[in-house]
Amino acid sequence: MTLQQGQIKELSEKHKQLEETITSEMANPDWNEIRIAALKKEKLRIKDELERLRSSLH
Q1: How far apart are alpha carbons 2 and 18 in whole angstroms?
Q2: pLDDT digits over 12-27, tens only?
Q3: Which of 6, 10, 33, 39 is most buried per CB count within 10 Å?
Q4: How many angstroms separate the Cα of 39 from the Cα of each of 6, 29, 31, 50, 53?
Q5: What is the DSSP string of 8-25?
Q6: What angle do CA 36, 41, 44 make, to 5 degrees?
């Protein structure tokens, strides 16, 4: 496994964890809109980084 592949795997896991956290947080009736927005922003940043890494592999 190359360094890039390791980074992709790690970021993919973080992305999945963020999705689960967002879903869990939003299931709570008292969810915090600012926290959810921050989590979604981080998830998007990770997605962009994943796309950049994947495109550099090909």
Answers
A1: 24
A2: 999 999 999 999 999 9
A3: 39
A4: 23, 17, 12, 16, 21
A5: HHHHHHHHHHHHHHHHHH
A6: 125
CA gap 55, 17 in Å, rounded? 23
Task: Report d(CA 49, CA 51) in Å as an integer.
Answer: 5
Query: Is the pLDDT at 1 greater than 90, yes or no?
Result: no
Q: Retrieve residue 4's tokens.
A: 């890039």
Contacts of 56 (CB under 8 A, 6+ apart): 4
Contacts of 21 (CB under 8 A, 6+ apart): 39
Give CA–CA dist 4/10, Å, rounded: 10
What confidence score (pLDDT) does residue 51 get?
96
